[in-house]
Design brief:
Rossmann fold; 7-stranded mixed β-sheet; 6-stranded mixed β-sheet; about 425 residues; 16 helices; alpha/beta; single chain; TIM Barrel; globular
């Protein structure tokens, strides 16, 4: 069968740009579509093509002419959900292919895609489920009972089965098909430094329950890891790519396994640099592991500090403390590991809140602060809590840089303070 996998274009919208001419907050997504490369790697008996509309925004019509598909798979995050549906409609108008939607938004809010232009929705990790669905379609057998697969029924509520992903769903024996995006590789760079970067997944899910996080929809709250030899194999496939982004929600969620992985990377002789996510409490409790990883090539860590005081962290169900964040910053500074620090500002921020965060960032060495707006993404606990306060339900604006609930400050003032905070924190940023 001809399987056509589509990554949507950059399509998130920006309230500060549209209303106030503030262009510095617009979110642009870059990086290879690893989820589609993983799917393609498990479709060895089929003809597969990946179209990355972020790199080739005008390529859909051309590709559909050149490669008439039997099945079309489309992925997307929340701010791309409207565009994913529009792509499904275009595909249905252009050909008679079966249209399948997957990705993190589909896992968290599958009902959004219960639409006449969509035939199936795949929830969870999807690598095994999508291949099983393709096999069922090829043999003309019933796919409605497949784990992780939902048949759409427009006008009626979807019946969602329990999400129970296991290690078998990772299909680790089949590596991602990186070759299918080789024509786009020049687009996948660290823009400020001009460094080519590749994506590898070593773990899925997260054992924690942060109020705002959408990751739980992917694994049902579980935490799954790939075997160490599989991770080393996948990194080795990205030939001549100097920087590897481990795109896990928490690479170091299993410390014993993470320590063994760091040792294996050092012994592999791959000589790559790595960017990986870690919690601050893991840094504080296991600095020796980070020293080992640094020897293996760890260049930077991404840490979700989120907020700067214990009360705010508790409200997020972050299960961490501000003192732990401070200690982690000191340890990483001493080690010389670059810190990419994630912070979340609330629409309820007032002038003093912006001032406090600004002072915090000015007085600590966080190499690249990343500041987003607290956004109640559908499917999260935060969405259930804040639904009554949401004033903007257009998912195009759910980029994490727009306030979709009312701001405490006048809206223009809120975005002006946000833009100034971001500009100041990035003035001396390095990676």
């Amino acid at each position: 069968m001809n399987i056509f996998l589509i990554n949507p274009p950059n399509c998130g919208r920006s309230i500060p740009e549209e209303r106030y001419g503030i262009t510095s907050l617009k979110q642009i997504f870059r990086g290879e579509p690893l989820a589609l490369e993983e799917l393609a790697g498990n479709l060895l008996e089929h003809n597969v093509r990946i179209l990355d509309l972020k790199a080739d925004p005008d390529g859909l019509d051309r590709e559909l002419r050149e490669f008439p598909p039997d099945v079309v798979g489309i992925t997307g995050v929340t701010c791309e959900a409207n565009t994913v549906l529009q792509l499904a409609v275009k595909v249905k108008e252009a050909c008679r292919a079966i249209v399948v939607i997957g990705g993190i938004h589909a896992s968290n809010d599958p009902g959004f895609f219960n639409h006449a232009a969509v035939d199936y929705i795949v929830v969870g990790i999807g690598k095994k489920a999508f291949a099983d669905l393709v096999c069922a379609l090829e043999s003309d057998t019933d796919a409605s009972a497949l784990p992780g697969v939902m048949r759409t029924r427009p006008g009626r509520a979807l019946e969602r089965p329990p999400l129970r992903n296991t290690v078998a769903d990772l299909v680790v024996e089949h590596s991602p098909n990186y070759e299918l995006v080789s024509r786009y590789r020049s687009h996948y760079i660290l823009e400020k430094l001009g460094i080519t970067m590749g994506f590898v997944a070593s773990a899925f899910g997260c054992p924690h329950r942060c109020l705002f996080c959408s990751i739980q929809g992917q694994t049902g709250g579980g935490y799954l890891t790939k075997p160490i030899e599989t991770v080393v194999r996948d990194i080795g496939l990205l030939v001549d790519i100097p920087v590897i982004r481990l795109v896990d929600a928490n690479t170091f969620g299993d410390v014993k396994r993470a320590t063994a992985l760091g040792r294996a990377l050092f012994e592999s002789g791959l000589k790559r640099q790595y960017l990986a996510d870690i919690r601050s409490d893991t840094v504080v409790r296991h600095p020796e592991m980070l020293r080992q990883w640094q020897e293996a090539g760890l260049r930077a860590v991404i840490i979700g500090f989120e907020e700067i005081d214990d009360a705010s962290l508790l409200a997020m169900n972050k299960a961490n403390k501000a003192s732990m964040n401070a200690e982690a910053i000191a340890i990483l500074n001493d080690l010389g590991i670059t810190i990419v620090g994630d912070f979340i500002i609330s629409p309820d921020y007032d002038e003093d809140d912006f001032d406090r965060l600004g002072t915090y960032l000015d007085t600590r060495r966080i190499d690249l602060p990343m500041i987003t707006v607290m956004t109640p993404l559908p499917g999260t606990a935060l969405y259930l809590q804040e639904h009554h306060r949401i004033i903007n339900h257009n998912l195009d604006y759910y980029t994490l840089t727009n306030a979709v609930t009312t701001t405490k400050l006048a809206e223009e003032r809120f975005y002006s303070r946000y833009a100034a905070l971001l500009a100041n924190s990035h003035q001396n940023a390095r990676l």
